[in-house]
Amino acid sequence: MFTPDTYRARRNRLKKDVGSGLLLFLGNEEVGMNYTANIYPFRQDSTFLYFWAIDQPGVAALIDIDQDTETLFGDDQTVTDVVWSGPLPALAARCAPAGIAAHAASSALADRLAEAIRQGRKVHFLAPYRAEHNEILSALLGLHGTTARASRSEAFHKAIIAQRSYKTAEEVADLDAAVNVSKKMYAAAMRAARPGKYEYEIVAEIARVALAHGGRFSFPPICSVHGETLHNPYYRNQMQAGDLMILDSGAETAHYNASDITRTIPIGGTFTAQQKLVYEMVLRAQLAAIDALKPGVRYLDVHLLAARSFATDLTAAGLMKGDVDEAVAAGAHALFFPHGLGHMLGMDVHDMENLEERLVGYRPGLERSTQFGLGYLRLAREVEPGFVLTVEPGLYFIPALIDQWKADGTHAAFINFAEVEKFRDARGYRIEDDVLVTEGGHRVLGQPIPKTVADVEAACRS
Ligand SMILES: [Mn+2]
């Protein structure tokens, strides 16, 4: 996607920001699903792609900041590899796209690291999110009595976050492209979501669109008429007229950028009066939250703005009572809105989550809340131009949670449980778009995807 100069500049900035020592990057390996040769779809680590541009398993890279060297480690294929997997460029050729100066056999990495450790030099590495990386790091670095996660380099994490948080014009263009694939996915889903169909038939429709654009899903879609279950990749419910389907899905482009979009779709093409009432509360909260986005605004405050919008509307509808600000401060709205407003988006659908949300979405002096609901907010810090994030408020009627709060009297001063009972079977509603923070404010990425009641109903009937 980029020229070798871009990758060199990214690595040079990294060296400058971390300052000294060695930077170790592990590419991802193939992982067996039920036996070694039957693998999960291979996905390279996003940080590895960002700095080294190599989308194949079996490679690692090392930067020696003090000696100003960069080395790619890997092995050329054997003839047997070629028989099964076809020919790949030699390791030397794989260095070219990212302008990597030197390469060596995989076996040389352990020696290089052992020498650095003997000399008492600092080897920076990232917290592993795969079990095999934990093992590889332990073996390479001789981590005794500690996990690789515990001894990861926070300085390395921070230096990567300092680059990946700010999307360049080229990256934004690719994120726009990802949302435009989503637009087609949602057009297909809204056309196909008819009474009598199964959820998996909708997933099949959107998979076809994602694959037909040379990419794939950016995460396993949530597609459910039980949207009140927040993560629900079940797909086996048959949809009935009057049901409401939450579809939360995304496309990954051929250049590894993700979209993450949610729409709530009436099965049969028309929202009932109660569904329309709740849906429009979510739409109002989402539009207000998007409208508030500009440089310097804390995303925590945008989350709370959405929460106040919900509390205001739910109070007007009789489901909540008392003072709106007090209700939100207490967290009473989380009975209906138990998750965060959104998260960073980029090459990862929860961008850089492996580098620790505390470092990506929070900062010293702004720590994560322990309150139910607010504690799930992944992004709270001030947003800046170049940030791409999701805005995804939702309202949910979760019978188990309603029953527990009612039995315990939780926030009884703010919740009108008798009225909530009338919405017991109203299920889940969420609307999500992807937004770029700009110097002047914000821009919703991609071409618009239907989200007013009238536009969604029209798309479902087309
Ligand atoms: Mn999301």
Set out the fold topology:
Blueprint: H1 4-18, E1 22-26, E2 32-35, E3 38-39, H2 46-52, E4 60-64, E5 69-73, H3 79-85, H4 91-94, E6 102-104, H5 107-118, E7 123-124, H6 131-141, H7 154-164, H8 169-192, H9 199-212, E8 216-217, E9 222-224, E10 244-249, E11 251-252, E12 261-266, H10 273-291, H11 299-316, H12 324-330, H13 357-360, E13 388-391, E14 394-396, H14 399-408, H15 417-420, E15 428-430, E16 433-438, E17 441-444, H16 453-461
The protein binds manganese (II) ion.
Manganese (II) ion (MN) is lined by residues 260, 343, 390, 392, 432.
Question: Could you characterize what this model shows?
Answer:
It is a single chain. The chain has 462 residues and is an alpha+beta fold. The chain folds into 2 domains: 4-164, 3-Layer(aba) Sandwich (Creatine Amidinohydrolase, Chain A, domain 1), CATH 3.40.350; 169-461, Creatine Amidinohydrolase (Alpha-Beta Complex), CATH 3.90.230.10. 38% of the residues lie in helices and 14% in strands. It is built from 16 helices and 17 strands. The chain has helices at residues 4-18, 46-52, 79-85, 91-94, 107-118, 131-141, 154-164, 169-192, 199-212, 273-291, 299-316, 324-330, 357-360, 399-408, 417-420, 453-461; strands spanning 22-26, 32-35, 38-39, 60-64, 69-73, 102-104, 123-124, 216-217, 222-224, 244-249, 251-252, 261-266, 388-391, 394-396, 428-430, 433-438, 441-444. The strands form 6 sheets. Strands 6-5-4-1-7 form a 5-stranded mixed beta sheet, with helices on both faces. A 3-stranded antiparallel beta sheet has the order 9-10-12. A 3-stranded antiparallel beta sheet has the order 13-16-17. Strand 4 (60-64) and strand 5 form a beta hairpin. Helix 11 (299-316) packs across helix 12. The protein is globular and about 70 Å long. The model has no long low-confidence stretch (mean pLDDT 96). Manganese (II) ion binds at residues 260, 343, 390, 392, 432.
